[in-house]
Amino acid sequence: MLIKNLKGSISDIPIIMTDKVELEPYGGSSLYLLNTITPLHVGAGRAVGLVDLPVERDGFGLPTIPSSGIKGALREHFRGNPFETAIFGQRVQEVESYAGALTILDALLVAMPVRSLKGVWALATSPFILRRLKEYMSCANIDSREVENAINAFGGLTPNEVILSEGAREIMEIDGDLIINEEFKLAIRGESNELTELAKILHLPESYRLIGIHDDLVRPIVERSLLRRARIKLQPETKTVEGGALWYEEDVPANTVFATLIAYGKLRISDDRIKELSEDLKKEAEGMKKDAGKVREYVESKMLKNGLGYLILGGHETIGRGLVKLLKVKQS
Fold first, then answer.
1. Are 249 and 53 within 8 A, CB to CB?
2. Which has the closest alpha carbon to 258: 12, 18, 16, 34?
3. Is the pLDDT of residue 144 over 60?
C-alpha cells in the first residue's frame, strides 16, 4: 500500500501524519469505531500459562481485533448478495481469480473500561493510544484536532496522576483521588474539556466516564481489566463435569472501544461476469468497477443505518459474547 502525502513527497511523511493523505490504489477510506456491547473473545489460540485461551494482542501487548475477524463478520452481512465475491474476494480458488475490493486494518484499542471504587466504572485512554487513533484518522482524512488537543492535555502527567472529563470528579472522586481496579490510587490533576470533546468524537453516551492515564500504566491496567473465566465441559448423557475438562479463557469487557480503517477499491470482476447480471445489477456493477466511492456507498448502505450497525465478532456468540456496535466517524 502506497501512502502519498499531498503536501510533499513520499519521503517527507512524518510518523504522526497530520496532512491530508490518500491510500493508493484505493479510492477512499473510512474510520469505524467498534464498541463492545457484550464481552468479546477474539482468541489467539491456546497458550501455556494461567489462561488457556487468551485474547488476541498486538505487538505492544494490548487487545486487538484482527482484520480477518472483522472481514469475516462483515461478509456475513453479504451472504447471498450478488456482489459478495466481487467485494470480499473468493472463498476458494476458482478459474477466474481476483482480489476483493476492500482492505481492512486491525482494530486498535482506543479506550478500556476500568473498575472505579466510586462511580462503578470509567473508560481509560492514554497519549500512546490516542496517537495511534490519530494516525488512522489522518489516513481517513478526518479532522484530528480534538484528538491532538486531548494528547496535549496530558502534558506533564505523572504515572501517579489521572485527568478526568468534565463532571467526573463529583461522581468518582474519593478524597482527591480516583481508585481504579482496586489497586491503582491516582491523584486527580483536574478535569479536562479536551477529554470531554474527545468523548463526543467517540460517541460515548456518558462523556464524563472518559479518563486519561499515563502511558506507563496502560498495560498493567489493561491486564487487570480483562475478564478471565473458568469454563467446564459437561458429559452429554449425565450432565456432570467431564474429567480434566476445565480451562480458563479471557474476554475483553463490554464498553471497550476499538477503531479500524477500511480502504475501498474498485471492483475487479471481468466484463463477462457483469454481463451475466440482471440489467439493474449490471448498471450498479459497472459503476462500482469505475468508482471506488460507489463501492464504499454500497457496502455502507448494507451494513449501516444512519452511520450505525452491529456485528458479531470472535467466538462464543451462542453464549452471549461478541456483540459489537459499529459506528462510522464522519469525515472532514
1. yes
2. 34
3. yes
> Which residues, 6+ apart, have CB-to-CB distance to 266 below 8 Å?
27, 101, 288, 289, 290, 291, 292, 295
- pLDDT above 80: residue 278: yes
Q: For residue 195, what is the DSSP state?
A: H
Q: State the Rg of the chain over Cα.
A: 22
Cα–Cα distance, 258 to 269 (Å, whole number): 32
Alpha helices in the chain (DSSP H): 67-76, 84-88, 127-139, 145-152, 169-172, 193-201, 218-225, 271-275, 279-290, 292-303
Residue with cell string 497458550: 47
Q: What sign does the CA torsion over 109, 219, 193, 166 have? A: positive
Whose cell is 487468551? That residue is: 54
Question: Per the structure block, which three cell numbers stand in for 148?
Answer: 491532538
pLDDT digits (tens, 9 = 90+) for 107-119: 999 999 999 999 9
Global confidence as pTM: 0.88
Helix (H, G, I), strand (E, B) or coil at 284: helix
